[in-house]
Specification:
319 residues, alpha+beta, Dna Topoisomerase Vi A Subunit, Chain: A, domain 2, five-stranded antiparallel beta sheet, four-stranded antiparallel beta sheet
Length: 319
């Protein structure tokens, strides 16, 4: 079942009523207190569009959670996606529910080592001291990543990127990384000089195998899966939703998160041998459960793509 199918067949206020969310309609939105158990919201910080292009998309400005109708049912009732779809079908008489994997099938994707890690609470690592001046990171994004000043500033603002000019992470871009619910967990410290080793640093104890960059920000049912943060940002600059796996390896936990949230996935990994091997493994893990399309690069990585190159890829996909 797709989010678009739900909002086409059901009035959003009817779902809000089923979930017993308190609030009121204001224009084209429903405004109320956040309904999620882990957010003790005493002021109306939650909104969901009941009409228009964003119909069914919600956001809480208090806890920063966002998503669509199916995600809302998942969070409010503490269900996996398959059970959330079945609950919607039961409430509103959908005569057909698209197959979704069971909780057991999703759990089977995890190794014993990963299962042990899931049982532990994720340690939230605070950001290091950063500069209040954007000029260093702005210059890096423009010159090294080939963005205009306008686009570079938008990237800084959207992804909350800062610059560290002292301490252990000196001369690195600090890019916050959030969990599925939009809570900052850790960060990537990226070399902006081209001279540091390693180029990317993650704080000790960072649970990278259990996170996906930009996962909480993608609210639709499809996404591009890429290797690195800057690859995902490049796809975002093309107007496409994208998540990153932090390297040429898709963990069982990451696969589980992707399967639980999306229906359609485009795999766009680096064009080297490691990227092709990683793409094949990701395809094997995801294909039984999702509509998966492999998109191949002859060389380089997605961050190297120009707009025209990307449009050529899109034309190839639609053939």
């Amino acid at each position: 079942m797709r989010h678009e199918e739900v909002v086409a067949r059901v009035k959003v206020p009817d779902i809000i009523e089923k979930l017993k969310i308190q609030g009121k309609v204001q224009g084209k939105e429903f405004i109320g207190c956040c309904p999620f158990p882990d957010h003790n919201d005493s002021t109306p910080s939650f909104s969901i569009a009941i009409e228009g292009e964003k119909k069914g998309l919600y956001q809480c400005f208090g806890c920063s959670s966002k998503g669509n109708i199916i995600h809302l049912v998942q969070r409010c009732l503490d269900l996996d996606r398959a059970d959330a779809e079945l609950q919607l079908a039961k409430w509103f008489g959908f005569d057909k529910v698209v197959y979704s994997p069971s909780s057991k099938e999703l759990s089977d994707l995890l190794s014993k080592q990963e299962e042990m890690a899931v049982e532990e609470d994720i340690i939230r690592i605070p950001l290091p001291r950063v500069s209040n001046d954007d000029k260093d990171i702005l210059s890096y994004i423009m010159t090294k990543r080939s963005y205009s000043i306008k686009d570079a500033q938008k990237i800084i603002d959207t992804f909350k990127i800062k610059f560290s000019n002292k301490g252990y992470y000196k001369s690195r871009a600090i890019i916050p990384i959030f969990d599925s619910f939009g809570q900052q967990v850790t960060f990537e410290a990226c070399d902006v000089t081209g001279q540091l080793n390693p180029k990317k640093l993650y704080p000790k104890g960072s649970p990278m195998a259990r996170l996906l960059f930009n996962h909480s920000e993608v609210t639709g049912d499809y996404t591009w899966v890429v290797e690195g943060i800057w690859d995902a940002i490049r796809m975002w600059s093309f107007g496409e939703p994208a998540i990153a796996t932090f390297g040429a390896h898709l963990s069982g936990w990451q696969a589980r998160m992707i399967i639980a949230k999306y229906h359609d996935v485009f795999l766009l990994f680096d064009g080297d041998d490691a990227g092709r091997e990683a793409r094949d493994k990701a395809m094997k893990a995801l294909k039984p459960y999702l509509n998966v399309m492999e998109v191949n690069l002859r060389y380089g990585d997605p961050d190297d793509l120009k707009k025209n190159d990307f449009m050529e890829l899109i034309r190839w996909i639609k053939r």
